[in-house]
Amino acid sequence: MPELPEVETIVRTLEKSLLNETVNHVELMYEPLLETDSMYPMEILEGKKFVGFHRRGKYLCFEFSDGYYWIIHLRMEGKFHLYGTHHRLTKHTHLLMQTEHHEIHYLDTRKFSRMAVTKDPDSYFMRKKLGFEPWDTHLTSSYLYEAIHKSTRAIKLILLDQSIITGIGNIYADEILFDTQIHPLTKGNKITKKQCELIINSTRNTLENAIAAGGTTIRSYTSALNVTGRFQITLKAYGQEGEPCSRCETPMVRIVVGGRSTVFCPKCQKVKR
């Protein structure tokens, strides 16, 4: 699933090509992609101009003239392909959008992604109960400590909870916990305020580095111009089961936490009882 760095990369890529272009034609071939509470049909964007490109957590948010916003959650396999000329549709192309100079194809092999068109993105995201962005000044060690200090959930699951910090997924949760030397099964009520500060700093640094590398390509992720990310070559935890720890050379161990594959170093990341 594309996480914050991958979504940010897609937003920046599309902005470079599509800013100020006008939509001439929209065709949604798989209707269930459009959420039932979408305020408008996709066709309302015909004749509208791309005027802004934003991200909220793992959501892409495209701003159009006349106050319209197109919001997309890529889920597992959603992706954009951008072409300069007419290009044939594939069986996984579920939306076609044409501008003066580009053809935008939206593909999703598993059809899990969802989208909506609205004039009130704040209300839309409020309904999704998203937490603070990693760089929000309100995301402090005091905030995080207060949010989790009574919780008996594993810290790995807390990091995946989009209502606390939005944008972190399985890949970067493993990387953050490895960086801070916190065992993924450590309960929230065992995390100290100092560790909360370490988690926030590591979250920001890890995601910034991933964005700079164009995201992490695992399986099928590519940017809108079909370019793979490069952060996967620097991963220290995710997918490293059996490999020597980059700090102590102890073999990395894989467990399952809340149904999610999790890799950590049993020596550097000791569980806090």
From TrEMBL:
Q: Which UniProt keywords apply?
A: DNA damage, DNA repair, DNA-binding, Glycosidase, Hydrolase, Lyase, Metal-binding, Multifunctional enzyme, Zinc, Zinc-finger
EC number(s) given by UniProt: 3.2.2.23, 4.2.99.18
Coiled coil ranges: none
Reactions listed under catalytic activity: 2'-deoxyribonucleotide-(2'-deoxyribose 5'-phosphate)-2'-deoxyribonucleotide-DNA = a 3'-end 2'-deoxyribonucleotide-(2,3-dehydro-2,3-deoxyribose 5'-phosphate)-DNA + a 5'-end 5'-phospho-2'-deoxyribonucleoside-DNA + H(+); Hydrolysis of DNA containing ring-opened 7-methylguanine residues, releasing 2,6-diamino-4-hydroxy-5-(N-methyl)formamidopyrimidine
Keyword flag Metal-binding: yes
PANTHER family, alphabetized: FORMAMIDOPYRIMIDINE-DNA GLYCOSYLASE
According to the record's subunit comment, the protein's assembly and interactions are: Monomer.
Q: What family does the entry list?
A: Belongs to the FPG family.
Name listed for the protein in its UniProt record? Formamidopyrimidine-DNA glycosylase
- Tell me the organism: Erysipelothrix inopinata
The gene designation is: mutM
